[in-house]
Amino acid sequence: MKEFIFYVYIVTNPSKKSLYIGVTNNLAERLDEHYQNRGNDATWAGKYYCYKLIYYETFQYIDKAIEREKQLKGWTRAKKDLLIKKTNPHWDFLNDQFKRDPSTEPRLKKSE
């Protein structure tokens, strides 16, 4: 049986004014989706250009990750800011830690 790591994460926009909290089992792919959706009014994160990772936690079980995501979403902005500053005091963008490796991606076959 394949084991997953689940992530609860917080992304922000380049000016660090808006926060988006989510949960995923593939953080590299999810960050790429947020990046591709920037400026897309159909999604909250896209509308506010939230694609810069500033915080994440890992979980073994999805139910615990979802529980934590809901908890964080219920917090005040000030409390979220303090949580982020504990592990990332300068709000550095952490996306590079989760870059996708193109060599492991499936290749598309060229049409004949």
Residue runs with pLDDT of under 50 for 5 or more positions: 103-112
As a percent range, the share of strand residues is 15-25%
The chain-level structural class is: alpha+beta
Main beta-sheet strand count, sense and barrel state: 3 strands, antiparallel
Measured between the Cα atoms of the first and last residue, the distance is 38 Å
Overall geometry comes to: globular
In total, the number of strands is 3
Give, in spatial order, the strands making up the sheet with the most strands.
Answer: 2-1-3
Radius of gyration: 15 Å
Average pLDDT: 90
Query: What is the quaternary state of this protein?
Result: single chain
**Helix percentage range:** 25-40%
With helices defined by DSSP (H or I, 4 residues minimum), what is the helix count?
A: 4
**SSE pattern, N- to C-terminal:** EEHHEHH
Could you characterize what this model shows?
Helix content is 33%, strand content 19%. It has 112 residues and is of the alpha+beta class. Strands 2-1-3 form a 3-stranded antiparallel β-sheet. Strand 1 (6-12) and strand 2 form a beta hairpin. The longest helix is centred in the middle third of the chain and has 12 residues, at 62-73.
Architecture blueprint of SSEs:
Layout: E1 6-12, E2 19-24, H1 27-36, H2 44-47, E3 52-59, H3 62-73, H4 77-87
Antiparallel strand pairs: 1-2, 1-3
Short note summarizing the structure:
By secondary structure, the protein is an alpha+beta fold.
Can you give keywords for this protein?
3 strands, three-stranded antiparallel sheet, alpha+beta, 19% strand, 112 residues, 4 helices
